[in-house]
């Protein structure tokens, strides 16, 4: 069965790569996500990825301990490059042609981000990993994901998280928490739902980019959700 999307962006948070640990990278988790991405790519969809860096470093957390915020944010962006290299390695082990494109130039290990070149890589069937976020402090990799997905004219942004969608409150703390099947961008903004930061949601809203939130740890979840098999929450414009 062909996939209903031509080109998609998958955002994976850095925390998703930690596995059961509280810091760093669990190679088994990276391998499992790479296998899911490889399946989707082999089935003909064009895939690009944005990986967070929260498993290694966050500028906000460092600033809370007295570090200069912008310096911390640059360190956070470098953390995303480490994660991107790990993911590239796991994808290449599965024989998926992959390119890392970095928003901060580091030509020895990654190509510089050039929009038209990224599109060309994807047209050739390569998986493109966008590293170093937006290249600017005070942003998040969620905003980077909404930005790159808009630039790449993706059909949707898939956000792989630790839970299977967006809930009315934290399902790990509140047993009465309810999962939404669909939400509008305005619902997320006005109810201040904890999905992505407001900059990312606003960018997606302006560019009519649907966001699909799902649990990245369920085996084969990415390919299932691409086919509409739940559970997940879809955020879109009001119909
Ligand atoms: N960051 C940044 N600009 C960007 C993207 C990321 O300054 O465009 C920094 C910021 O310090 C952030 C860190 O990189 O905390 C890691 O990214 P993020 O927190 O989005 O990772 P995730 O929560 O997805 O693991």
Structure description:
With 239 residues, this protein is of the alpha/beta class. It has one domain: Acetylglutamate kinase-like (Carbamate kinase), CATH 3.40.1160.10. It is built from eight helices and eleven strands. Strands 4-3-5-2-1-6-10-11-9 form a nine-stranded mixed beta sheet, sandwiched between helices. Strands 7-8 form a two-stranded antiparallel sheet. α1 crosses α3 and α5 runs parallel beside α7. It is globular, with a radius of gyration of 17 Å. It starts with 6 loop residues before the first strand and ends with a strand. It binds uridine-5'-diphosphate.
Which key phrases capture this entry?
kinase, two-stranded antiparallel sheet, 239 residues, single chain, cytoplasm, UMP kinase activity, alpha/beta, Carbamate kinase, binds uridine-5'-diphosphate, nine-stranded mixed sheet, nucleotide-binding, globular
Number of separate helices: 8
Structural class: alpha/beta
**Helix fraction by DSSP (H/I, runs of at least 4):** 25-40%
End-to-end distance? 27 Å
| Number of E-type strands | 11
Protein name: Uridylate kinase
Function: Catalyzes the reversible phosphorylation of UMP to UDP.
Organism: Candidatus Kirkpatrickella diaphorinae
Main location: cytoplasm
Give the arrangement of secondary structure elements:
Layout: E1 7-12, H1 27-42, E2 46-51, H2 59-64, H3 69-93, E3 98-102, E4 111-112, H4 115-123, E5 127-131, H5 141-151, E6 156-161, E7 166-167, E8 179-180, E9 182-184, H6 185-190, H7 198-206, E10 211-215, H8 221-226, E11 233-236
Parallel strand pairs: 1-2, 1-6, 2-5, 3-4, 3-5, 6-10, 9-11
Antiparallel strand pairs: 7-8, 10-11
Helix pairs in contact: 1-3, 5-7
Residues 13-15, 52-54, 58-60, 72-73, 76-77, 79-80, 133-134, 136-137, 139-142, 144 line the site of uridine-5'-diphosphate (UDP).
InterPro entries: AceGlu_kinase-like_sf, Asp/Glu/Uridylate_kinase, Uridylate_kinase, Uridylate_kinase_bac
Protein name: Uridylate kinase
GO molecular function, one term: UMP kinase activity
